[in-house]
Specification:
With 141 residues, the chain is an all-alpha fold. The chain has seven helices and no strands. Helix 2 packs antiparallel against helix 3 and helix 3 runs antiparallel to helix 4. The chain is globular, with a radius of gyration of 16 Å. It is found in: Nucleus.
C-alpha cells in the first residue's frame, strides 16, 4: 500500500483530509471516487475504490462501483487472452460476496461476468452458490 502512495496527488489532499475527518462515512469516499472518475486514470480510480472497500467493507454502493469499474475495463477484451485480468476481477467478486452474499445484484453481476469466460464448471458452481445464498423469492432473478 505505501508503495502506491505516488497515486495521491496534491489535488487529492482535500479528499484525503475529508476521509480522515469522517472515517466511518461513505460520502467522502463517493466524492473522492467521483473526482477520480473525472480527473484520474483507471489505476487511480481503482486505487481509491480499493481503499474505500477495504475501509468500509460492508458498503454495497462502494463495492458495486468498484466491481463495475473493473468489469467495464474488461468488457471487450478476450477472456482467454486476458485470463489473468479476469481472474483478478473474479477474486474481487469473491471478496465482495464474503460480506455481501445476500445482495442479488452482486451475484447477477458476477454470474454475467463469469458467463463471458470459458469456465463452465466454475460458472455452474457459482450459480449453485448464488441459489443457496439468496432467498427463494430472489431465485427468479
Amino acid at each position: 500500500m505505501s508503495s502506491d502512495l505516488y497515486l495521491i496527488s496534491e489535488n487529492d489532499v482535500i479528499y484525503e483530509q475529508d476521509i480522515l475527518r469522517n472515517q466511518g462515512s461513505i460520502k467522502p469516499w463517493l466524492d473522492y471516487a467521483s473526482f477520480k472518475r473525472q480527473h484520474g486514470s483507471l489505476l487511480e480510480q481503482a486505487f481509491v475504490l480499493e481503499r474505500a472497500c477495504t475501509t468500509l467493507p460492508r458498503s454495497y454502493k462502494l463495492w458495486k462501483m468498484y466491481l463495475e469499474l473493473r468489469t467495464h475495463h474488461l468488457r471487450h477484451k478476450n477472456a482467454a487472452k486476458f485470463q489473468s485480468e479476469y481472474k483478478k476481477v473474479n477474486a474481487l467478486f469473491e471478496r465482495a460476496l464474503v460480506l455481501l452474499n445476500k445482495m442479488p445484484r452482486i451475484w447477477e453481476m458476477y454470474l454475467a461476468f463469469l458467463c463471458q469466460q470459458p469456465l463452465v464448471t466454475t460458472t455452474r458452481r457459482t450459480f449453485d452458490r448464488a441459489l443457496r445464498a439468496l432467498p427463494i423469492t430472489q431465485h427468479n432473478r
